[in-house]
Amino acid sequence: MTHQPPIPTLTAADPDIAGLVEDEARRQAEKIRLIASENYVSQAVLEATGTVLTNKYSEGYAGKRYYEGQQVIDRLEAVAIERAKSLFGADHANVQPYSGSPANLAAYFAFAQPGDTVLGMGLPAGGHLTHGASVSITGKWFNAVQYGVRKETGRVDFDQVRDLAKEHRPKLIIAGGTAIPRTIDFPAFAEIAREVGAVLVADISHIAGLIAGGAHPSPVGHAQVVTTTTHKTLRGPRGAMILTDAEHAKAIDKAVFPGLQGGPHNHTTAAIAVALGEAAKPEFRDYAHAVVANAKALAAALTERGFDLVSGGTDNHLLLVDLTSKQIAGKPAAKALDRAGIELNFNTVPFDPRKPFDPSGIRLGTAAITTRGLTPEHQPQIAEWMDRAIAAAAAEDEASIDKIAGEVRDLLTAYPIPGYRA
C-alpha cells in the first residue's frame, strides 16, 4: 500500500514525514469522507502540484513581472486564465489568490474602505467567516450587516436582504456561504444590489464544480465579482480564483497584487489549470450531476431515519443536519462518526441555541464519495451506518462503532481513490 505518485526520495530523505503522508493517504482511502469542503483530486492534479514550478518566484502579472525568467510562467498562467474564462463564461479571471479567504478580502480591498458597510450572510445562518463575521477581519474593519434565513423554511430571507440593503446602503453585497444546502438565487441578489448601487460578490467556493458542470445556476452575468476556491466540488488544488466582468477586472487585479500578496504559487496555478481542463470535459458534467443525485439520495435516506435536515433537504452537494431530535450534540456525534469511519464536521444550524464550538448540527457533502464512485444506491447504507453510530455514541457502545468502521473499510476496498494504491 503506497501513496501515488510514489515518494521514494522523500521516504529516504525524511521517513518521518513520508510516514505521515502514507498514513494520511491510507486514512483517506479507508473512510467515507463527507466533509463538504473536501474532495479527491486526480493524479494529474497531484503531479502538477509537486513540480519544479514551486521553485519560481513570479511577482506581478504576465508581461509585467518584477523578476526575470518568466517565459514559461507567463504562458502557464495564461492557460489557467483562459480555461477559467472559458469554463465559466467570464470576461476576466485572476488565478493568483492563495485561498478563498484572501480572494474575498481582495473584493473588499478593491471596492470598499475600512468602515464602509457590507452586507453578507451571517455565520450562524450558513455564511462564511469572511462575509462579515464579528471574529473575522471583515467584521472588525468594516461595518458588517448580516442577513439570515427564514426560520420556517431555512432559506434566505430576501425580504430581510432588501430591507437591510435599503436601510444601510452597503458598498458590497455578498451572496453565497459555507453551509447553504439550497440553490442560490443570484438574480434576486443582483436585483437588490442594483437597487442600492452595491457591487455584488458571489462566493461560489462550495458550488463552483456544480456550476461548471451545469448542476447549479451560474452567477456570471448577475454578479460583477465571483470568488471561489478551486478545491471542493471543482476538484482542484488548494487555491482560489476571482472572476469578474470587464469593468471590475483592473480593480481586482490591483487588489490581489500588489494589494494583498506577492508572488503567486506557480505549482498551484498549474494544478488549477489541470483541474479546469478536466472540468471542461463531458464526463465532469456527469460527475457534477451525480454529486447532486447522491446528496438528494442521502438526504432522503437520512430523513427516513428521523434526521432533521435544515430546509428539509438539498439542491446541491451539501446537507445540514440538526441533531436535536436525536438527543446528541453535533460535536460528539461528529467524533463518534469519525471513529466509525465516516468523516464530517460538527456545525452550527440556523437559530442554534448552542455555542459554535459545541453546536447542534453536522454538515456533510457528497463530492468526495462521488469522485470515488459511490452512487445513490449506497446512500441508504451510509444513512444506516450514521444512525447506528450516533445511537452507539449515545449509549457509549464503542464495540458497535468499531464494527461499523470495519464494514465501511470493507465497502471502500472496491472504490479506490486517486493518490493511493492498496
UniProtKB/TrEMBL annotation:
GO biological process: antibiotic biosynthetic process; glycine biosynthetic process from serine; methylation; tetrahydrofolate interconversion
Gene Ontology molecular function, alphabetical: glycine hydroxymethyltransferase activity; methyltransferase activity; protein homodimerization activity; pyridoxal phosphate binding
Domain of life of the organism encoding this protein: Bacteria
Site (Plays an important role in substrate specificity): H231
Span of domain Serine hydroxymethyltransferase-like: 11-386
Listed CDD domains: SHMT
Cofactor: pyridoxal 5'-phosphate
Similarity comment: family membership: Belongs to the SHMT family.
UniProt-recorded name of the protein: Serine hydroxymethyltransferase
Source organism per UniProt: Amycolatopsis alkalitolerans
